[in-house]
Amino acid sequence: MTRIRWVALTWIMSSCVLSAFWGFSLMRTSPILMVDFKAYYYGARCLLQHHDPYDVSELEEVYRTDGGKHPLETIKARQAVTININLPTTLIFVAPFAMLPWGAAHLLWTILTAGSLIIAAFLVWDLGANYAPAISGVLICFVLANTEVFFAVGNTAGIVVSLCLVAVWCFLKDRFVWAGVLCLAIGLAMKPNDAGLVWLYFLLAGGIYRKRALQTLLVTAVLGLAAIVWVTPVAPHWMQERDSNFVVTSAPGGGNDPGPTADNGRGTRLIIDLQSALAIFRDDPRIYNSVSYLVCGALLLAWAVRTLRVRFSSTHAWLALAAVVPITMLMTYHRVHDSKLLLLTIPACALLWAEGGLIGWLALLVTFAGIVFTGDIALTVLDILTKHLQISTAGLSGQMLTVALMRPTQLTLLAMSIFYLWIYLRRETERS
Question: How many domains is the chain built from?
Answer without folding.
Answer: 1
